[in-house]
Amino acid sequence: MFAWTGGVALALVLAWWVWPKHAASAAAAAVPVDAGHAVLMDFPIRVASVGTVEALNTVDVKVRVDGQVQRIAFNEGQDVRAGQLLAQLDQGPLTAQLHQAEAAQRKDQASLNNARLDLERYSKLVGMGAATSQGVDTARAQVESLAATVAADAALVQSDQLQLGFTTLRAPFAGRVGVREADIGQVVHPTDANGIATVTQMEPITVVFSVPQDVLPELLAKQAGSALPVNVTPRTGDAVLAQGSLVFIDSHVDPTTGQIRLKASFTNQDRKLWPGELVNAQILLHTDRQRVAVPDRAIVNSQSGTQLYVLDKNGRAQLRPVKTGNSVDGMTEIDAGIDTADLIVFDGQSRLDPGTQAAANIVATTAQPAAVPSVTSIQ
């Protein structure tokens, strides 16, 4: 009996010894992650807002006298110089009117010259007793009357010259001409709703936008030292269209929105900004210099607060609380909790738990994930 029992026990021991061991006792496989070191970088702190491009000057060139359009000297959409001819009205009627006023002036001037001669003769005759003082006074009054008439004639001539000048329409400033609003042969009047064309100044140009009142103290302090830089980007996309500077801070805050209006100026020599266009305006308030930074995607937000997965020298993940600052262009400031020597998990955090073994692929510390990981650093 005992021999049989001993044989069974021996068989069980041998079976356990030779039975193949499975992977259950093997160590768990390391979790692949992308990791890198925090970097030191500058953080430009900007305030962004939707703005509207506005021209410094826009004018509808209108006639100041009645007349018939005789010539159109521009093409629609053409760039013009200040003083360049835009249109010409028929000058015939006003030219004749000017000639008539000049003739009347010459006639009255001749009468004045003759009256002065009469006054001179009467003055001499009084001394000889051949004329009375009353005659001299009458001659003097005639001279003064005719002098006033000649002055009125000169003013009328000047007025007619101005009216004749109004028949020539020129660009008041350098800019771009819009749609033609009158045709050759059309009779136009100063009371017409439309003029000949609209001229818009394109260089320089401004962008008007509003920012929260909370940044007003810093804006005022910075603007007192030097003009704050302003970047403009399209409504869709991040490419910078133009770089300019802040030139105006409004005198009051809009109480309904808590926003204050600003205006920035741009040279616009490349014509990337167009009047009436909606753009994104970004004003630089200040720059945080050489701050510890990690990509935004590395941040782990939990009920315990903001954290990062840090790999120790053995490749094990540790969840470390950190204090974050500003986030700019996909990178976040880390004010406390890590330094540039720490190896931070950038991608793959969802598969990690504290203490998990990680297989770290070292990648560049950039805002965007790496397309192809680099060589394995630690496991």
Question: What would your notes on this structure say?
Answer:
With 379 residues, the chain is α+β, with helices and mostly antiparallel strands. The chain is built from four helices and 23 strands. Strands 1, 16, 17, 18, 21, 22 and 23 form a seven-stranded mixed beta sheet that branches. Strands 2-11-14-13-12-15 form a six-stranded antiparallel barrel. α2 (92-128) packs antiparallel against α3. The protein is elongated, with a radius of gyration of 44 Å.
List the main descriptive attributes of the protein structure presented here:
7-stranded mixed β-sheet; 26% helix; alpha+beta; 379 residues; 4 helices; 6-stranded antiparallel barrel; 39% strand
Listing every helix as H and every strand as E from the N terminus to the C terminus, the arrangement reads HEEEEEEHHEEEEEHEEEEEEEEEEEE
Poorly predicted segments: 22-26, 372-379
Strand content: 35-45%
Fraction of residues in helix: 25-40%
- Average predicted local confidence, pLDDT: 87
What's the shape? Answer: elongated
Radius of gyration: 44 Å
What is the distance, rounded to the nearest whole angstrom, between the alpha carbons of the first and last residues?
56 Å
Number of helical elements? 4
**In total, how many beta strands?**
23
Summarize the structure.
This protein is of the alpha+beta class and 379 residues long.
Write the SSE topology.
Blueprint: H1 2-18, E1 31-37, E2 39-55, E3 58-61, E4 67-72, E5 79-80, E6 85-89, H2 92-128, H3 133-165, E7 168-170, E8 175-177, E9 187-188, E10 197-200, E11 205-212, H4 216-225, E12 229-234, E13 242-254, E14 259-266, E15 278-295, E16 300-302, E17 305-311, E18 317-321, E19 323-328, E20 331-336, E21 343-347, E22 358-362, E23 376-378
Parallel strand pairs: 1-22
Antiparallel strand pairs: 1-21, 2-11, 2-15, 3-10, 4-6, 4-9, 5-8, 6-7, 8-10, 11-14, 12-13, 12-15, 13-14, 15-20, 16-17, 17-18, 17-21, 19-20, 22-23
